[in-house]
Design a protein that fits this description.
The chain has about 90 residues and is α+β, with helices and mostly antiparallel strands. The chain has one domain: Orthogonal Bundle (Arc Repressor Mutant, subunit A), CATH 1.10.10.10. It has five helices and three strands, in the order H-H-E-H-H-E-E-H. Strands 1-3-2 form a three-stranded antiparallel beta sheet. Helix 1 packs antiparallel against helix 4. The longest helix has 16 residues.
Length: about 90
């Protein structure tokens, strides 16, 4: 769970997750929403993949990124449980 929290700690990674809620996208499509370099985007996607929040699937010459809804839902449930105890 620590890797999930590390991934969510960055506002750019949270924005990537928000973007992927709309639809699955290639890295080029995701990059249109940001001003940083491709290397920086690759780093953010790597952290999101490591936390299992994003799934990368090769489709021909492209890699399609999608939100891993099962892990995302579990994370949301955890947050709800944490904040409902207060």
């Amino acid at each position: 769970m620590d890797t999930v929290f590390k991934a969510l700690a960055d506002k750019n990674r949270r924005k990537i997750l928000e973007i992927l809620k709309e639809k699955d996208m290639t890295v080029q499509e995701i990059a249109r929403h940001f001003q940083f370099t491709g290397a920086t985007l690759s780093h953010h996607l790597s952290i999101l993949k490591g936390a299992n929040l994003v799934i990368a699937e090769r489709q021909g010459q492209f890699i399609l990124y999608s939100l891993n809804t099962s892990v995302f839902e579990e994370t949301v449930k955890l947050f709800i449980n944490i904040f409902s105890r207060k």
